Each structure stands twice: as structure tokens, then as C-alpha cells.
Amino acid sequence: MKEEKVTKNILEWLLENNWTIVCYDFPQSGTGVILHQNNELHTTKNKGSIIPDIIAVKDGVALFFENKDRFYQPDFEKLFEIKTEQNFTDSLNRILSDYPIIKIIYGIGISDVKKEVSKAKNHLDKIDFLISTNEKKEITIHYDVNGIFTNA
Amino acid sequence: MISYRIWYSTEGFADYIIDKTILKGRKCEKRLLFESDAKTNHFHTIPDHIKKILYLDAHDLIIEVITSKGFEPIVSIEESKEAGTGHNSFQRFARLAASVENAVPTIYIYPEATIISRDSGTKKTWDKINPNIFRAMEEINVTHKIPALLFYYPTFFKSQPDPYKAPSKDNGRKEEKTIKYAGCPDSSDIEMKKMFEVINKIIEKVEKVGAIDARDNLQSERIIRDRIKWMANEYTIKKNPKKENSPISATTIVPSVSLINYLKKKSSKSIKIGELLHSRKESVIYQIDGEFRGDPYPGALAALDYILCRYGRSFEERDKNLIICFGTLDYNATKGTINVTDNPKTKTSTIKDLTDKVKQSEKRNLLSLEFSSLKKSQIPRYYMQMRYGSTFSKVKHIRVYSYFADAIIFPDGVLWRDA
């Protein structure tokens, strides 16, 4: 299943669960919002910038998704860096300025392929949640350290 | 039995075009379009007649008809959400040209204006489309007699010209709400309705007289003639009579003898430059006042070919040479000399950046491998490269520059074609 479908399935699921979509992106869509590194780290235009695959908000929580059709370790590293180094806070605060946000949590959406999910589970220490989806649009929550989805 | 194959880069856009046109009632099969051999290992699986349309750059969508006689692409569609100022609106132009040069009508969806926030969102403007895109598209219409039509991506620009009052979500664009069509233009907008009518007309005509006769005669259809007239009118309305827009504003026309002297100066005074450059009295030099790079310049170079140089269907049919220059161009009309230097405000413009890109592309080349070292899955790719060499394996801007430019000049080196 292509990344486009992974992202669309998750978008539908989030909307069904009353999340508000702030922005989204998938390959070739041209819909994404570019987040730049904070000013002191910002060198040349768009260098080191990122385009989140989904940002959604509900009840003071913002979700930050990176999605793929397979396990892709650099996405885990990227989310860990954003979360721990707080190097995109200016752009994130700006894009979330219309919403009262208490907490941003970071996670991965991937295609529901056993082997890929299994590989992803070896890197849960870097993220807050791991979600997979399949052709039937079913969603499986594999990991949710904050109980955001499981307690909702 | 007629059926259709829809080649797509995003499946949602393929669904959108199928569902909103008469294709919904036809048998359709969707296929993912692999961009090029430079980016994927699957490009060789694309049929040869589609590869030919992709030789410069990949399209967003191609519709082809399948009949008992075979496969024929009948229209290609490009969709952009970019702000169309400066060179941006030309970014996809090489694709449009490649489609029409292969006798396939093309449609370009582009916003009339897009809200751009500057200074951390404190300043907002509607950045408007560069009207020269209409002029360039008119030129390909006239040159090839195959429709190249622009439709505005729906926006709030007309209904709310004040960017501070217009909905700023999606930079002022009107997009589809359903997730299936995420990122697609609002289909209820009049521009999209007109586009669907044109696509329907092309399909109906193909089904009536066959793909080849249909595309050769589409220009005479009222709905298409009206669109071409509308485009000409938009150009007239939007053009600033006092100031030329890019990319034309970034060009200098010089005598070809001055160009040839510069090529000799940068290579060898004794070298014999071939007949092609000599055969045209003047040369158009497109100046990129900075380091070597790609988008949006390849598309702009293709547009300049049609606007300033081309008189016939082949790129050989030009009345002026087309040159691209990376660096600051200094043309002394009195002495008839050309000099190219680094712009002190930008990074060094060096031909090494170009040749490094060419070398990088060679990493995709399988032809230097022994047969025994090829993976079995690489065999059909190897065979494609055996026929086409690196035609599809080089990065896009190298393909486009080497196709359209008769010469490429830098402060420290030059390339040119002899014939």
C-alpha cells in the first residue's frame, strides 16, 4: 500500500474520531506545509526544513505524523530529534497558533505489513505512537505511550 | 471494446479525473507512473510510447485509450499549487512541451494567485501568475497545432482580493473536502467544470473518429478554440506594458559571432565550432545569475525556446540559438564581446557543478556491469539502457538543459553542440 493511502486512511480515521486536521502531505500532493528550523539554526532557504505528513489537534493535544508504506528508520530519528532538540518550535508554534495546545506528540503511521511493523517496533523508544493501516482502511494502534488514542 | 488506462503520480488525482468526467462510465485501469530511471528501478516497466512523453519530465496524469489497434495517449494533465510569480509557473513547462511535441494535448491547472505570507506571517499578499505562461502556451499551440490549455486552480482570489480577509487555509486555494480527493482542486468551481468539459470532448472525439484523427483536429472544436482565445485574453489583461516579465526579462540577444568567440576563448582559439551555431545570426542568452541548479529554470528555458527561438516542430527549427548562462553576463555591444563572471552575492558558478551532476547520474548506469554481476531483476533495465543509454537515467535538469540549450556557458567553462 502506497504512502498516499496510508496517509489518507489515517486522515479519515482521525476525522471520524473528531480530530481537526491542521495540515497533511503525501508524495506529489503539493499540499504540505514546510516547517523551518528555529531562527538560530536556519541557514539557507528550506535547508533542514521538514514537511509533516499530518498535524492534527484535539483537546489541547497536537499529533505529528510521519507516514510511510514501509519501515523507514530515518523517520524515527527525525521525530526523536524534533522532540528532544525542540529545533522546530518556532514553526510549530506558528502553525498551531490558532489552537490551545498543551502537548505535541510524535508518531509513525505505516502500512500494515507484519514484517515492517515488526521492524518498527524495535524503535519505539524514539516515538510516542505507532499506527498501521491496511487496504480495508482498518487502523491498528501498536503503541501509544501517552494513551492518547486508547483512552479517548 | 474501448477502455482507458490512467497513468498517475497520485492516485487521488486519478480518481478525481475519472469520477468527475465521462470516464466514470468507461472501463478504466489505473497505473502508477514511475518518474524516470534516475529515481526508481521500475521506469523500464513503462511502455515505450509513454516513455517518449516522459523523456524530459514526468507528468501528473496521462490518459490513454486502449482499442483493438493498440494504445494511444490522448491527454496529459499537470496540476500545480505553487505561487505563479517569476519563473515558478514555468517549472512544469518542459512537461507540457514534451506532451505536445508527441502530439498529445496537455492541460495545465495553475492558481491565478496564491496567498503568500512573509516576515513570519505578518505580511500577506496574493502572488499572481506570471502572464508569460499564457504566451508560452500559445506558442506551443500555434507551433504544434495540438491544444495546450491552462485552467485556473480554484482560489478565493476573485471573490476576496484582500489577502488578509481571504481564507488563508491552503494559501487561499479551494480544495476538495473529501479525503479520497485530498489535495485536488474544488470540482464545483467553474474552471474545473470547464476543464472536465474539455476532457469529455477529447474522449468523445477519440471514441468517434479515433485517437490520431481526434488530436489532429481538436483545435477546431469550439470549446477548445474558446479556451485558447480566453488564454490570449488573460495574457493581454495581465501583461504589464511597461515592464517585461521573467523569464524574457532575464534574456539578452547577442550576435552569434560574439557567442562563438566566447566559446572559443573558453575552450581553444583553434577549435572549429560546428555549423549549427553559425547558421543562426543571433543567439538568446538566458542568464541565471547564480550557481548551477535545477527548478524552476529548466521549464523556463523550454518556454524561452517557444517564445523567442522556435519556428518549427523540432528544436532544430530555430531562428536564434538558445543559450543558458550560469553567472553574470556582460555583453559589450560596442566591442561585440561577451564575458561571464561570478556574481559576488551568490555562490561560485562553476561548470564542475554540472559535470558532477552528470557523473552522479552515471551511478544509475548498468551498462558497465558484467552480465554475470547483474541481478535478474536488473536485466530488463539493462536492456532498456542498452537501447536508450542514459536518456532516462540522468536527473531532470540535465536532461532538459541538454535538450533545449544549444550551449551552456559558465565563467570557467562551456558546452555546445556542433550540429
Please render the helix and strand layout as text.
The complex is a heterodimer of chains A (152) and B (419).
Chain A: H1 3-16, E1 20-24, E2 54-58, E3 61-68, H2 73-85, H3 89-95, E4 103-111, H4 114-120, E5 129-133, E6 139-144
Parallel strand pairs in A: 3-4, 4-5
Antiparallel strand pairs in A: 1-2, 2-3, 5-6
Chain B: E1 3-8, H1 11-20, E2 28-32, H2 48-53, E3 61-67, E4 70-79, H3 93-101, E5 106-111, E6 113-118, E7 123-128, H4 132-144, E8 148-153, H5 190-209, H6 211-217, H7 222-238, E9 251-255, H8 256-266, H9 275-279, E10 282-288, H10 297-309, E11 320-326, E12 328-332, E13 337-341, H11 351-362, H12 379-388, H13 396-404, E14 407-410, E15 413-416
Helix pairs in contact in B: 3-4, 3-10, 4-7, 4-10, 5-6, 10-13
Characterize this entry briefly:
Chain A has helices at 3-16, 73-85, 89-95, 114-120, and strands spanning 20-24, 54-58, 61-68, 103-111, 129-133, 139-144. By secondary structure, chain A is of the alpha/beta class. In chain A, strands 1-2-3-4-5-6 form a six-stranded mixed sheet, sandwiched between helices.
Q: Can you offer a commentary on this structure?
A:
The complex is a heterodimer of chains A (152) and B (419). Chain A has 152 residues and is α/β, with parallel strands linked by helices. Chain A contains 4 helices and 6 strands, in the order αβββααβαββ. In chain A, β5 and β6 (139-144) form a beta hairpin. By secondary structure, chain B is an alpha/beta fold. Chain B contains 13 helices and 15 strands. Chain B has helices at 11-20, 48-53, 93-101, 132-144, 190-209, 211-217, 222-238, 256-266, 275-279, 297-309, 351-362, 379-388, 396-404; strands at 3-8, 28-32, 61-67, 70-79, 106-111, 113-118, 123-128, 148-153, 251-255, 282-288, 320-326, 328-332, 337-341, 407-410, 413-416. In chain B, the strands form 4 sheets. Chain B has a 6-stranded mixed β-sheet, sandwiched between helices. In chain B, β14 and β15 form a beta hairpin. In chain B, α10 (297-309) packs parallel to α13 (396-404). The chains are: A alpha/beta (152), B alpha/beta (419). The A-B interface holds A 2, 4-5, 7-8, 11-12, 15, 24, 26-31, 94 and B 9-12, 32, 60, 79-82, 120-121, 170, 175, 179-180, 182-183.
